[in-house]
Amino acid sequence: GRCFVARQSHCKGLAENTRTKAPNADTLQDSKHLGFSGRDDQQQWLGGVGPTTSSRGLAGADVVVGCREITVQDIRNACVSSKTYRAYKVSLASISKWIRASKGESGSQYFTADGEIDVGVFTARDFESFLLEKRKTVSVATLSGYRSAIKDLYRRREVPLPIEKSMATFFSGLKRMEATRLQSGSPKESGKDPLPFSLYRELCKATITRDDGGFAHMFLTTQWNLMCRSESVQRLCTEHLSWHDDSIGCIMHKSKTNQEGTGPKDPRHMYGNVFSPDTCWITALALYLACRPTQAPGPLFPGSEQKARFGSALRKLIADQKHRNHYGTHSIRNGVATFACSGCTGGPSIASVCLRVGWSLGGVQDRYIRYETAGDQFLGRVVAGLPLNRPQFASLSPHFKDNDDPAVGACVQAMYPELQKVSGLRDILKLCVASLVKHSSYFRAELPSTHPLLTTPLFRNKEMMANLSANMVTCESPWMTPTGIPPLVELYKQLEGVQQSIDNLPPVLLDGMSTFIEKKGVAAGNITRDLLEATIESLLERAGLAHVRHTVPSAQVPGDTTTAAHYYGGKFHMLPESFEFPKVGAHAAWHLWWFGDQARGYSPLRRIGAHDLPRDLMRKTYSNWRNLMQRICEAALQGGCQITVDMSEQVAEKVFRVGMQNLPLLASTRKRRVSELSLGTTLRLARQAAQKRSRSAPV
């Protein structure tokens, strides 16, 4: 009775949470601003012929995102995820193929009228024969997947499972045989090894320079610091993040071991690493979001199959490393857990690691051993890569002395115009800006010149960067207190202070002895060099002949917005010979078009001509830039905006929003990552939409 009531309650909550609601006008307006025309969405909700999403069928159905109501069968099928259902379907297809190949003409009796395996005819002996054949080519873990698929088939057919003792004995024997084979020296055929911290750092250095706007780097560091599966990283949203002074918390509402979301909702704390910008999670977040200024609140990794996208990038990076093809996405979680438990003899407790990773502690978990903030904070600092055996373990993430400085708020608004509208994200974004300022020299040295981060307002404005650098602090803070610090670190800090005092003692002793000898020499009538120089200077000053050095203050020249001309190829150019068009989207290109890059001496691109380009091959790219900027300007004028050559960046931002909102783009039935659209893709969609309108226009 209790189980039935609990199932009813869970299903009711699932139905309420997954029931589709019609979008309001703001939602449609936002989608239009991000580049969609909005017509298909409006038709779908108003009952038109828009694209709809259908259910998967009888089993493993996802929540239906169409116009029909959620049924009881949909809720029951939601107990199996779509990914698991697809795996079951592949396993059952493999079993069906084996039946047809091994049973010959009598194989048809093993299937029902709808083509599924008949569990009344397909016995446990038949299944064991199938497993015996398959074990020649696959591992025991894969064979367990076939067993799970058969169990799900019994569940869907509402047939009681047979006694599993014989099958359990069969699998126990398989596991023992596999262990014996591995012990005898046979090569490992399945499973992934834990990712060591040294290789993790190499991957971070490789991903931070990739041409994907920091996607792979952000995904990698997030999975490492959260110690979770890649599926959980794929579903993260900005609403899951919270600010905790010197750390950022992330709440995981659902995981593989907590499918119904009934577990504790405790934040997992993530820290920055001021000594290692390539492994710092806050820096990775800052870079990732800065390259996507138009990304709205919601999914942190918008789009479908982001897990597969990261897996493909990781495999490519691993393939570049010799003899390291036994690492995968699951190696990250295994590696960070191993690093936290065994990376140091004084690391966090195993209970903190298990609670964060999601491993079971038996009947004592959440009853006798529960989550505690201090333990998770200590673990967060360890997995961030801070040196546990050094006083620097207590270092703070880069932040500003005056967190309410208007200059900080202005920079946040310029760097993250969409996300800064959410009050709960502003303090997180301030930490992001501080990390970018702290590691600006690192980014300029390591990132390619075409990276979109180098075209953001912070890196284009020298004055903004200088003002924020003067306001930044990483050690003693007037308002931020370090958390997750073990007692030994405080002893390390005191010992470091004692060592510094000892190191400073010899100069103090020498100065004291020199002064003492000087005084004794004067008393004895001995004239020293210092005494002679001091006497001469005193006499000259008394006679009015002392040389007075006057420092003439340099004239303050107001900031000049003009840029220098560059001479190469026998003529002058407004762009340097090393200039490359950055690989950015429409938003960053718009600001470069109107304001240029002051830090690198680039004139506003609207002022240049084709003859200013260092290579003729760039003429087509420049033509595409000019074409898209012209389309955005025309769309902004249609929206009622006034465009002037001396408009500020704030006004230009508003003009860009109106222009993109009114710029028709070719609609798509697939989920589009609007914030990651490149300039070329945006121009192509605009041209296709214009061609479609011209073809449909009456003659």
SS element count, helices: 28
Structural class: mainly alpha
Estimated radius of gyration: 33 Å
Measured between the Cα atoms of the first and last residue, the distance is 70 Å
Helix content: 40-55%
- Main sheet attributes: strand count, strand direction, barrel closure: 3 strands, antiparallel
Number of domains as seen in the coordinates: 5
CATH architecture name of the largest domain: Orthogonal Bundle
Low-pLDDT stretches: 1-67, 548-560
Query: Given the C-alpha coordinates, what overall shape results?
Result: globular
CATH homologous superfamily name of the largest domain? Intergrase catalytic core
Strand content: under 5%
Enumerate the strands of the largest sheet in spatial order, edge to edge or round the barrel: 1-2-3
Question: What's the CATH topology name of the largest domain?
Answer: hpI Integrase, Chain A
CATH domain class of the largest domain: Mainly Alpha
Strand tally: 7
